[in-house]
Amino acid sequence: xxxxxxxxxxxxxxxxxxxxxxxxxxxxxxxxxxxxxxxxxxxxxxxxxxxxxxxxxxxxxxxxxxxxxxxxxxxxxxxxxxxxxxxxxxxxxxxxxxxxxxxxxxxxxxxxxxxxxxxxxxxxxxxxxxxxxxxxxxxxxxxxxxxxxxxxxxxxxxxxxxxxxxxxxxxxxxxxxxxxxxxxxxxxxxxxxxxxxxxxxxxxxxxxxxxxxxxxxxxxxxxxxxxxxxxxxxxxxxxxxxxxxxxxxxxxxxxxxxxxxxxxxxxxxxxxxxxxxxxxxxxxxxxxxxxxxxxxxxxxxxxxxxxxxxxxxxxxxxxxxxxxxxxxxxxxxxxxxxx
Length: 339
Description:
Mean pLDDT: 93
Number of domains: 3
CATH class of the largest domain: Alpha Beta
CATH topology of the largest domain: D-amino Acid Aminotransferase, Chain A, domain 1
Strand content: 15-25%
Structural class: alpha+beta
Radius of gyration: 20 Å
Number of helices: 11
Largest sheet: 6 strands, antiparallel
Helix content: 25-40%
CATH superfamily of the largest domain: ATP-grasp fold, B domain
Number of strands: 13
Shape: globular
């Protein structure tokens, strides 16, 4: 029988917190669904669990570690001071202190977060990526001639489709310039501009460190979007229920998928996972063209772990019930060698 563990579940907060803050009200809300699901699973598994939410005070983490002495930290903190680019710094701190934690280490988080660097690495290894250019704030905004319309304009380091809307899809140099300028100013972010890949949008969930398990493939389908309209996973397409209903957007298991293509996707995603030095678990987002060309769009280390989201749904389809998934992520974290 596997030994029971002392687990500290680490969350992020959007305002200052205290050491023993009562989070019961927050844990009943939709925004804290993942945290609530993970805590319930840890409890069901019989682990001794405490939790802590941090905003800008790392001393709280030190105090909690000293008083509770956890075997492992279940890391769900993906921002610090409301800044998502600090997620890698949180795990760097834990790694420096020799504390086992779940999910991806700092190198994988850094490489995946920078959409330009991840695409350069994969393109070097002959994995298809869209043609792209990065445009830093303060630089002259101009489209390189090799970059063909239509083009998608995205913030370089954001997640969860933040900053992506229908206006991100541009077809003229004027629109290109306007949208890049908008992202620079509104999100205070550098930009990645990449050619739009017409095709199906697949989400591939993967669990493991060296030995990987690829779960059944999910797809975002656009049922009511007219054939000539762009099909893009905008922020609204992911998070706005009314919008999703209007356009018939659904996340479901991929249907009518050629087994040969499915095997090829699995192989490519395992390579991507290792090349981007991901550990623990991740979701890889792909576009597949009508000619079955597989294009890498982005990798999400530490994707959302709520029981009703793509990652857990894919695991369940592969006969890994939610509590067992959480336990496997926990054991992987405990046994990951952090350099």
